[in-house]
Structure to design on (376 residues):
């Protein structure tokens, strides 16, 4: 599995549940597993305590693709920077032991495990890209790694002699690593994220491993076994991992926006009261409108209330003038009865002028037989 494939898989898994990525602020834990590729290692040779057998420990160890698992605990500062302690384990089978002077059949595997202290930085790229569903990060680390050669052996036929070299031993050295990854937060669980990473880890060379050389010497006694030590060169590991991480102090997702409540409609500042033909008496509907105007006058600011009367064009102009005044006075009296101070009201009659519906003379238009209440 390549790092690119792992990153794509993490993206597909996280996309339906993605939340807004945020830098970690506080304690967190993480774990991951995946592919580990170990580069070939040089063998410095077997140093025999009594070299009765010809040396067969030189050459290089080559490894099959293996696996890696790790767990970590760390603390984020809330500004993108975080620190963690990591424990890891890697295993790769020995595929080939090259450089021997005879055909060889290698076996066994290499285990590498230890602890690292890492410093990492999360990049919040959402302000620049709008991509708030993932957060890339980089890091470096240093620590100590132990290497165990587990039943690593190399057998073959040397000219005129059978040979076998083997080791099952552990040694350790200083290690270092570089990290490149990305986190994909899961909105259903605040603080939980899927991670995809590439890690390069190196272990300094010079490790020595106890071993033995067995076989039949070219000259000397029969089958013998002699003790010695393997020397391995620097170790390089390339790892691609998928994992999970949980931050304990993650902020909860923002609440859904409050529903927008439409503001209450503003109280009307103008009201129309209509009258029957040639009447100045108030209908039930007219009284309801006047009561509403009086009620709303308490919730709006005004300096005066104008009550203006009008008529249609039927009848004489003089009669219509007097009728419009009577209508205005009737409405003003009803306003007072509903609690409006009389001194706040001004009344005026306009007769058959200012028609709401333009008409010719002697037309009984109901819309023109009205009083208009205006809150100024």
């Amino acid at each position: 599995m390549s790092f690119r494939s792992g990153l794509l898989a993490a993206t597909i898994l996280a996309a339906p549940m993605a939340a807004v990525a945020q830098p970690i602020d506080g304690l967190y834990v993480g774990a991951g597993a995946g592919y580990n590729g170990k580069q070939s290692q040089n063998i410095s040779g077997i140093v025999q305590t009594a070299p009765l057998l010809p040396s067969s420990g030189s050459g290089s160890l080559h490894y099959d693709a293996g696996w890696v698992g790790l767990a970590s605990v760390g603390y984020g500062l809330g500004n993108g920077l975080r620190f963690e302690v990591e424990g890891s384990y890697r295993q790769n089978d020995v595929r080939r032991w090259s450089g021997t002077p005879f055909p060889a059949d290698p076996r066994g595997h290499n285990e590498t495990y230890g602890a690292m202290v890492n410093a990492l930085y999360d990049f919040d790229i959402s302000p620049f890209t709008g991509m708030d569903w993932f957060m890339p990060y980089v890091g470096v680390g240093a620590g100590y790694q132990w290497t165990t050669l587990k039943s690593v052996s190399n057998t073959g036929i040397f000219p005129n002699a059978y040979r076998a070299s083997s080791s099952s031993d552990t040694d350790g050295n200083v290690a270092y690593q570089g990290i490149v990854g990305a986190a994909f937060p899961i909105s259903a669980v605040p603080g939980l994220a899927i991670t995809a990473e590439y890690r390069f880890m190196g272990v300094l060379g010079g490790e020595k491993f106890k071993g033995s050389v067995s076989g039949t010497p070219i000259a000397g006694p029969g089958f013998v076994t002699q003790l010695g030590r393997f020397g391995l060169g620097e170790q390089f590991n390339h790892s691609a991992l998928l994992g999970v991480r949980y931050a304990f102090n993650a902020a909860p997702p923002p609440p859904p926006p409050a529903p927008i409540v439409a503001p209450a409609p503003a109280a009307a500042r103008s009201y129309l009261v209509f009258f029957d033909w040639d009447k100045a008496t108030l209908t039930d509907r007219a009284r309801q409108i006047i009561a509403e105007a009086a009620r709303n006058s308490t919730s709006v600011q005004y300096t005066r209330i104008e009550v203006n009367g009008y008529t249609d064009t039927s009848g004489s102009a003089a009669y219509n003038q007097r009728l419009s005044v009577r209508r205005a006075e009737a409405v003003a009296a009803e306003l007072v009865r509903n609690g409006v101070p009389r001194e706040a009201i001004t009344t005026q009659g306009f007769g058959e002028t200012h028609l709401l519906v333009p008409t010719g003379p002697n037309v009984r238009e109901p819309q023109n037989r009205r009083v208009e209440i205006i809150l100024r």
